């Protein structure tokens, strides 16, 4: 058993660290949930891509470096340690790309991946519907077979950054007569500016147009934009749910970096005379929690390198990092005292509003990528072997 | 990097698990609690034969250690089976004497490795118990006070613990046999070893509690269905598993840090200790709650596991001191 990095891994870390030190903007970019911030973050994706840092784990021919999982974790640690911008391409890179690597055609990969890696095309996920949230398989949007493709219709919602994104991927009911709700679904990709598509922004809790509703009225999708076999959409989509819940969406580097910043905040603001012990304990728990997630992930990476796979275990991650994220940010806001209420848009917000923005973002963690209630059901039923019951 | 137990470590755990599963540890615990140390000493000898105590003793004193990772693996199994006795204290005494050397090491370490000597230890420092665990069962009780170490002559009256298998007593008398900065350093190392193996023991205990509770809620029916099909029950068990799963790598990480004499080892151990013990205590609360009134009764063996969780939480450094140590250093790593 060891936690050692090879000389090559150390060199990779140093290379990433040097590049980031030279390129990361000194002042944080505007929130990526706004039009202005979205554009700035898209530009940053291009900067990353130019030096092959946007998708390090992808094969070189698609703009990556063919990195191992461990190297990717190293990159992520350095990325967040450097205070680099949030990844506006994350839904494409973390959710659609793995699906294309698993189920896409060579033509689809060649056509879609390079422009995703460069930030030229930014993808939104269009899964949820007004009546299909946790019970995703009950979705009602339809895909009807037509000459050379499909015509899709219905309504998708809570689609992150769809107000600004270029294209979307989603699940559609292509066989209304299938015997089970999760059969007869097809995984399709479509442009958000196509004829028949209406995108209506929805303000998230702090009013930023981070979400959108997507109305689809008889939109044509060619056969080349079907991922996997028609009717197999559920299986295709679920192949990436592990990525979304697991370590690839929210890598430990995010949390070790945030915990470092929290510890610094504690050391710079703590007043030992003002009942600081309880807050100090919470800071310690956040630091410990981030370290635990990092080590847990190293163990996971070791298991994968030894030929293992991640299955329902990704649900453990999802609950853990989403709750850690909230606790960490709540602690930071409490350390900031009365100034903790200032929104990230306040000119005098501490740390350029990064704690306020991080807090708002963290509140969504237990909801997206499968609510934590669903994750706990999965843990109980698939990892502990408890009987299925009524939800 | 291969941050997983290797085949040999896994096999070691399996061997201990198999041996302890057939050793009737609940009976051993009940005897130990009543002051009858015979069955416990017999089990102690078998553990020594399996190589457990030699892991804490350097090679020049007839041991194979000190091997923190293997100790963590072994103590996970000791916790899983609720083995009684001053286990962490004996391992820590091995660490202390191994670092100090001298006559005491020559006399006691070979006996400690072979299981002939059951040893207790008391390190008088903030957040650590002033009692020596199971002093009445021990062949030797070492006491570290500041920069001195002595072998106690006797002990005060036995104070029962919330865990019937833990019997506490104040060490009394004895002559100082070593003094100075070397003692302070060796004692700090020994306390870290004690905290590490206590964390490992707690994790094993927590896993056993979770397994038993899962089994119980699958069998127990109310309202015509298994109570384990209720979401409130499932989610509590899921949270218990999450806490245990994320504490485990902290324990192995701390063991590696100790093995490498990493300057950050103390903080890594503190992080592991508080996480593992909180997870185990959470598992005990879950076990108690989900067994219902059955869990609140003494007679089922489950009570022996439940009652151990809270004392392990404060043994060899309290959660508050652990968190303060983590905080003092900023980030753990």
Report on this structure.
The complex is a heterodimer of chains A (391) and B (333). In chain A, α6 crosses α9, α7 runs parallel beside α9 and α8 runs antiparallel to α9. In chain A, the strands form two sheets. Chain A has a four-stranded mixed sheet with strand order 1-4-5-8. A four-stranded antiparallel sheet of chain A has the order 2-3-7-6, with no helix packed on it. The model of chain A has no long low-confidence stretch (mean pLDDT 92). Chain A is α+β, with helices and mostly antiparallel strands and 391 residues long. Chain A contains eleven helices and eight strands. The longest helix of chain A is centred in the last third of the chain and has 30 residues. The radius of gyration of chain A is 21 Å and the shape is globular. With 333 residues, chain B is an alpha+beta fold. In chain B, 58% of the residues lie in helices and 11% in strands. Chain B is built from eleven helices and eleven strands. In chain B, β3 and β4 form a beta hairpin. In chain B, α9 runs antiparallel to α10. The longest helix of chain B has 39 residues. The mean pLDDT of chain B is 96. The chains are: A alpha+beta (391), B alpha+beta (333). The interface between A and B is large, with 55 and 49 residues.
As a percent range, the share of helical residues of chain A equals 40-55%
Largest sheet of chain B: 4 strands, mixed
Name the beta content range of chain B: 5-15%
Number of helices of chain B: 11
Strand order in the sheet with the most strands of chain A: 1-4-5-8
Class based on secondary structure composition and strand pairing of chain B: alpha+beta
**Helix residue percentage of chain B:** 55-70%
Which two chains share the most extensive interface?
A: A-B, 55 and 49 residues
Unreliable stretches of chain B (pLDDT < 50, length at least 5) are none
**Which structural class is indicated by helix and strand composition of chain A?**
alpha+beta
Our Rg estimate of chain B from Cα atoms comes to: 19 Å
Compute the average pLDDT of chain B: 96
Please state the overall shape of chain A, judged from the principal axes of the Cα atoms. Answer: globular
Overall, the morphology of chain B is globular
């Amino acid at each position: 058993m060891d936690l050692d990095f090879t000389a090559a891994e150390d060199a990779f870390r140093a290379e990433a660290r040097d590049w980031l030190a030279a390129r990361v903007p000194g002042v944080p970019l505007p929130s990526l949930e706004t039009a202005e911030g979205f554009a700035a973050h898209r530009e940053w994706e291009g900067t990353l891509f130019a030096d092959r840092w946007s998708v390090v784990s992808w094969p070189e021919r698609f703009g990556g470096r063919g990195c191992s999982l461990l190297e990717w974790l190293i990159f992520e640690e350095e990325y967040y340690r450097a205070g680099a911008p949030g990844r506006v391409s994350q839904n494409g890179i973390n959710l659609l790309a793995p699906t294309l690597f698993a189920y896409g055609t060579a033509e689809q990969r060649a056509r879609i991946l390079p422009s995703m890696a460069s930030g030229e095309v930014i993808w939104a996920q269009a899964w949820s519907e007004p009546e299909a949230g946790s019970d995703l398989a009950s979705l009602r949007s339809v895909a009807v077979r037509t000459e050379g493709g499909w015509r899709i219709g219905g309504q998708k919602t809570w689609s992150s950054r769809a107000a600004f994104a270029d294209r979307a991927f989603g699940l559609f009911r292509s066989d209304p007569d299938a015997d089970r709700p999760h059969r007869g679904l097809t995984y399709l990709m479509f442009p958000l500016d196509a004829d028949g598509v209406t995108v209506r922004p929805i303000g998230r809790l702090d009013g930023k147009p981070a979400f959108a509703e997507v109305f689809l009225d008889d939109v044509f999708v060619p056969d080349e934009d079907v991922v996997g076999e028609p009717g197999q959409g559920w299986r295709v989509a679920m192949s990436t749910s592990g990525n979304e819940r697991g370590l690839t969406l929210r890598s430990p580097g995010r949390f070790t970096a945030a915990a470092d910043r929290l510890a610094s905040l504690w050391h710079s603001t703590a007043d030992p005379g003002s009942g600081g012990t309880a807050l100090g304990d919470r800071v310690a728990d956040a630091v410990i929690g981030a370290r635990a997630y990092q080590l847990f992930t190293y163990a996971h990476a070791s298991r994968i390198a030894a030929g293992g796979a991640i299955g329902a275990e990704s649900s453990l991650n999802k609950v853990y990092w989403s709750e850690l994220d909230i606790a960490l940010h709540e602690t930071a806001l409490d350390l900031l005292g009365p100034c903790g209420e200032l929104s990230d848009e306040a000119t005098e917000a501490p740390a350029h509003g990064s704690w306020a923005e991080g807090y708002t973002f963290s509140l969504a963690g237990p909801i997206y990528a499968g609510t934590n209630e669903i994750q706990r059901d999965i843990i109980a039923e698939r990892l502990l072997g408890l009987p299925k019951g009524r939800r | 990097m291969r941050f997983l137990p290797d085949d040999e470590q896994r096999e070691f755990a399996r061997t201990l698990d198999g041996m302890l599963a057939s050793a009737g540890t609940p009976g051993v615990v009940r005897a130990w609690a009543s002051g009858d140390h015979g069955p416990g000493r017999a089990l102690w000898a078998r553990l020594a034969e399996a190589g457990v105590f030699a892991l804490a003793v350097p090679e020049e004193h007839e041991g194979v250690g000190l091997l923190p990772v293997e100790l963590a693996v072994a103590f996970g199994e000791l916790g899983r089976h609720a083995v009684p006795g001053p286990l962490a204290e004996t391992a820590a005494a091995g660490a202390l004497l191994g670092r100090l050397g001298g006559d005491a090491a020559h006399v006691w370490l070979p006996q400690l490795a072979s299981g002939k000597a059951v040893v207790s230890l008391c390190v008088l420092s903030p957040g650590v118990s002033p009692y020596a665990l199971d002093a009445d069962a021990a062949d030797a009780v070492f006491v570290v006070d500041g920069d001195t170490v002595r072998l106690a002559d006797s002990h005060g009256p036995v104070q029962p613990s919330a865990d019937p298998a833990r019997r506490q007593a104040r060490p009394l008398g004895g002559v100082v046999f070593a003094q100075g900065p070397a003692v302070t350093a060796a004692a700090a190392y020994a306390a870290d070893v004690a905290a590490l193996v206590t964390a490992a023991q707690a994790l094993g205990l927590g896993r056993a509690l979770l397994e038993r509770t899962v089994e119980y809620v699958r069998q127990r029916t109310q309202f015509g269905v298994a109570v384990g099909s209720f979401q409130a029950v499932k989610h509590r068990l899921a949270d218990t598993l999450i806490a245990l799963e994320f504490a485990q790598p902290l324990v192995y990480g701390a063991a590696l840090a100790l093995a490498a004499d990493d300057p950050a080892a103390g903080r890594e151990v503190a992080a592991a200790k508080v996480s593992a013990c909180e997870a185990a205590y959470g598992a005990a609360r879950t076990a108690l709650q989900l067994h219902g009134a059955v869990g609140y009764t003494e007679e089922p063996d489950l009570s022996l596991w439940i009652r151990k969780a809270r004392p392990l939480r404060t043994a060899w450094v309290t959660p508050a001191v652990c968190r303060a140590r983590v905080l003092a250093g900023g980030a753990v790593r």
